[in-house]
Write a structure and sequence with these properties.
Blueprint (H helix, E strand, L loop, with lengths): L3 E4 L14 E6 L13 E3 L5 E4 L5 H8 L13 E6 L2 E5 L17 H5 L20 E3 L3 E5 L1 E3 L10 H5 L5 E3 L15 E2 L1 E4 L5 E3 L39 H14 L1 H4 L4 H7 L1 E2 L20 E7 L4 E7 L6 E17 L9 E9 L7 E3 L12 E2 L4 E12 L9 E8 L19 E7 L8 E9 L9 E8 L2 H4 L10 E8 L4
Length: 497
């Protein structure tokens, strides 16, 4: 390990990372554990999974392949392509339906190794936010229970505003499936890796300090300060110049206050492109910078601080994600009222309020559509109906037929399944809810299947019914964000029937 003697003065922003740890000889340094692009990500045949090449980056390959198994027995050297509103990167975190990788952000190499090396004060004490929103500072300073609200990178922050939900931060929909924060939602400082293998900080992780607005700062050319506070990537080289310029132009259109400060060519020298340009399905999958999102980083204040910026996908294009927007438990027989004879009565319904969120609401069912009771009967067969939305506005889904995995648990565990989460590991009954063909671009489509309540279901008990989008959609590249893949609902077992 390197022996460093240096003082890194805070890199602070609403969407930035602060390094403010006074480092003395023999002290650990953040840059002992973060890495610039070595082209260590080796993409596998399906183009949505990858491994860290052990011959290029043996440190991380060994960590994920063997060392972290003491914390996560299912861990392996595997990365997964993830998109957040069109901004794509490689994450070691496996989906609920997946295998390999690691179970949660705590076990990302950089988060684990730098647990106590970030955000611990420094020279800007008047702006320091302390332990605000940290899950537990005795465990790590790399996990916060909220995330930045998208699209506010150019705004300044205030101490009071950072303390309130809905001003600069919001509850994160990302749930930890393991580690010290199992079943808790929040955001991690490091999200994974860029396409060239660079350690990638999350643009949704809240800053450790109050941040000035973009137009209040003096910005520096990133080449003047190298990898002091963030990684230089291959995407700043001449090979990617044209694509980067298109991305910068789109970023400035997204943040007009930045456009007023400097020209596109000046921002090209200030902004380091941290992520690989997306393949454009409208232009023969060329990486032209005209499609999808991107992450940038930039130095300011004489290279002493930095801030990250996110370009989000154009709303007119959407992005490669599927949203399980509705789950219904429905009686199996058609309504016999002479009027609504092509419909079935609904026992219970849950809906997701918006894509890529955990915000759900119980459906408001019309009286004519509502079942006589909202309780279920042991031994009786019911239908599970779902509705899936394709967030891509430029391509239909490739995987067919439409498939949603379903399950039922006799003993509902509320600690595992808050906000509509579905943990299929403790299902007592499993099944499928299916539909025909693909989902059109920007379209929605329903599925249907059946499930039978076990005869030994205890009267008066609460059971859980869950659904999750089948993992084949991720493997096909149709669904690259798992946050909105699952839903669950609970019902009581009837005492008299």
């Amino acid at each position: 390990m390197k022996q460093n003697t240096k003082l890194l003065i805070g890199a602070s922003s609403i969407f930035g990372i602060l390094i403010s740890t006074p480092l003395t000889s023999h002290a650990e340094s953040v840059d002992d554990y973060i890495i610039s692009g070595q082209h260590s990500v080796r993409i596998l045949g399906n183009n949505v999974e990858a491994v860290i090449n052990p011959s290029v980056d043996p440190q991380r390959a060994s960590f994920y392949g063997s060392q972290v198994k003491s914390l996560d027995s299912k861990a392996s050297n595997r990365l997964y392509k993830v998109t957040d509103n069109g901004y794509t990167y490689w994450s070691p975190i496996r989906s609920k339906n997946g295998s390999g990788g690691v179970s949660n952000g705590e076990y990302i190499y950089e988060n684990l190794k730098t647990a106590k090396l970030y955000g611990i004060g420094g020279s800007d004490s008047s702006r320091y936010l302390g332990d605000l929103w940290l899950g537990d500072s005795d465990i790590t300073r790399n996990f916060k229970t909220v995330q930045n609200i998208a699209g506010k990178e150019a705004e300044g922050t205030t101490r009071e505003g950072m303390k309130k939900l809905g001003v600069y931060v919001e509850r994160s929909p990302e749930v930890n499936n393991g580690g010290n924060y199992k079943n808790q939602s929040g955001s991690w400082r490091f999200a994974g890796y860029a396409g060239d293998g660079s350690s990638l900080q999350s643009t949704r992780f809240p800053g450790d300090f109050v941040a000035p607005a973009v137009n209040e700062l003096k910005w520096d050319n990133y080449k003047d300060y190298g990898s002091r506070l963030f990684n230089q990537t291959a995407f700043d080289t001449a090979t990617w110049n044209s694509a980067k310029k298109n991305l910068v132009q789109r970023l400035l259109a997204q943040y007009p206050s930045m456009k007023k400060m400097h020209s596109v060519n000046q921002w090209m020298k200030i902004l380091s492109l941290q992520t690989e340009p997306e393949e454009n399905p409208i232009n023969n999958n060329k990486q032209d910078g005209k499609y999808g999102g991107a992450a940038f980083a930039a130095y300011h204040s004489g290279g002493s601080k930095y801030r990250t910026f996110t370009l989000y996908a154009d709303k007119s294009d959407g992005y490669m994600n599927l949203n399980l927007r509705q789950l219904r438990l429905v009686e199996n027989d058609f309504i016999d009222d002479g009027v609504h004879t092509t419909n079935r009565r609904i026992v219970k319904e849950v809906n997701r309020v918006k894509a890529e969120s955990r915000e759900i609401e119980i459906g408001d069912i019309a009286d004519w559509h509502k079942a006589a009771t909202d309780k279920v009967v042991p031994g009786k067969t019911y239908r599970i109906e779902t509705n899936v939305e394709n967030l891509s506005k430029v391509t239909k889904t490739k995987h067919t037929p439409l498939t949603v995995d379903t399950g039922l648990a006799l003993n509902y565990k509320s600690s595992l399944e808050e906000s509509g989460q579905y943990d299929k590991d403790y299902d007592d009954v499993s099944g499928k809810s299916t539909g025909s063909g693909s989902i059109s671009k920007g379209g929605r489509k329903g599925t249907a299947g059946t499930i039978t309540i076990p005869k030994d279901a205890k009267p008066g008990s609460t059971i859980r019914v869950g659904a999750i989008i089948n993992d084949e959609y991720r493997k096909a590249g149709d669904n690259l964000n798992a946050v909105d893949d699952d839903l669950s609902l609970t019902v009581q077992v009837a005492s008299f029937y």
